[in-house]
Give the backbone structure.
Amino acid sequence: MSRKLRWGILGCAGIAKRAVIPGIIASQTGVAAAIASRNLSTAEETARSLDIPTAYGSYEELIADPSIDAVYIPLPNHLHMEWTFKAAEAGKHVLCEKPIALNAEQARKMVEACSAAGVHLAEAFMYRHHPRYEEIKKIIQSGEIGAVRGLQSHFTFNNAGDASNVRFRKAWGGGSIYDVGCYPISVARLLLDEEPQAATVHGLLSPEHDNVDMMASGILEFSGGVALNFGCGMWADFRNTLEILGTDGRIEVPSSFIGNPNYYVITRDGRREVEQPDLNTYTLQIDEFAAVVWGEKAPQFAPSDAIDNMKVIDACLQSIHERNRITISQEG
């Protein structure tokens, strides 16, 4: 393929260096053309290590580069809206790290700005680009595990000792709901193909970590009495799991967001492992993004999906702080 989408990366975050930039490099459609940091030496060092040809000492310089087609934004959460606006104004397509914003209203403004500028906006939930989730949806729809009665999903890890981590800055959008709770929320919405009606969430607010939610556990209510029971955290042993429970069986995904893509279907006929190709979901995300930009396909996940996911996150955080069940509006 001769055509390439030229990517600029706003910031040298770990997720960019470890996963997304290598995903761009491995893609059929993209090239990592430039990277920016507020510290030029940091940008230059990262550019050298990843063979990126251009380094900038400010985000503004990268945004102004006419050769850049799209930007990836892995900045702290409170900066997502600002730099999405600036990228859209410059005519750049935007892949923004999750969560896309600090709240649903910000997400709505971002979607509107990108639509008005005629650029594509996508939220960087890489996991859902692996074809196994379409397979799992088909198994559910086939009735093999019966009627769905509930989902359980957990995403936890422990980096509580890293006092300088941006995840522990409340004003910057820190906390476990924003960082990893967004995954169980997203996957439940994806598999059930509907929006939850209410959220009840209990959280551990840690004074040692600027009172962000270091742990959270909750229930999202869907129609028909179905619920997602989820847990997320940044101060617990690692988990990365999903279970879909039906009346006649269940589906277990031991590594639901990162790691081994294989999953299991358990019914009265026994337990079978469904082997999956070990695909780079970051690369799949990049290639789909380019196909959308080039008009070759419609986005698998419309920008409005990011607004809907943020509505649920808003309700979860409100529930933690008010210690109450929060109804989730389906309007707007």
